[in-house]
Amino acid sequence: EVQLQASGGGLVQPGGSLRLSCAASGFTVSTSLMTWFRQAPGKGPEWVSIITSNGATNYAASVKDRFTISRDSAKNTLYLQMNSLKPEDTALYFCKKGTTRGQGTQVTVSS
Is the pLDDT of residue 85 over 90? Predict the structure, then answer.
């Protein structure tokens, strides 16, 4: 059974950093296409980043050059390093593999 559990969110000031983790079970992260999405209050889900099975990455224009997606084979975990955070980055962040998504982790950027 594919399971995903995101963690690492929290309250951070503008300009700060957070690293989100997505622990996976039931499949191998390092050979899978995986994505990060986010959903702000009152809005629909927004795609944030993708990493393919061969390691290619891509980012939404709103987070490019600030966020970095990566993975750890030994820990079977996907990460999202978020730097230079802005209030508009406030959202529930969740990882996905295919149609399976984790429960999400809340990121709040506020002074």
Answer: yes
